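Please, structure for the following, as tokens.
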Amino acid sequence: MPQKKPPEKKTTAKGPVTAGRTRKDLERLFSAKGLTDFRWLDARDIVVAEWVRMKCLFGCPDYGKNAACPPNTPPVETCARFFREYKRAVVFRFAKTVDKPEDRHPWSRKLNLQLLEVEAEVFKAGFVKAFLLPMDSCNYCLDCAGVRAACKQLKLSRPSPDAMAMDVYATVRKIGYPIRVLAGYDEEMNRYAFLLVD
């Protein structure tokens, strides 16, 4: 008895159609992972500014000490070109109040690991350019090597949006998200992660 041929994969000009390729499919994936506060962003609306890098150079205690922060990230003009390679991104919003500044790190570490899982799922769904910019500086290791070549978590480590010279304030305001400088840590903060999709 002749065996049935397996159904052929549908293809488009861009290659095989895989599960999770539509915006709605991705939104279902985000919701299934507990990420319900997000908005889509046209990647052309990402604002890159030299002043952001200057804030890293002068004033940030992580400068030169974090393998995923300046000077271990590309120059500002390269960051701008990198963002131009994308059409759309997803912005995830996380609101939190903490008693002390350092209390945000365990919270953000857990969320950033969850977001990395989402990045991997989006990649497996056929979005090969999927790239996460987490909501906080990389803090997976208690004692960071300080340079990319010596990083102990190369698979997990990603630069934060500001490490890539993104003006997060101007960018999230374009899609109506709240953001402001806080007077103290007793106020609710709004933190943002960006998943560059395609």
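The radius of gyration is 19 Å. The helical segments are 23-32, 50-57, 76-84, 104-124, 168-173.
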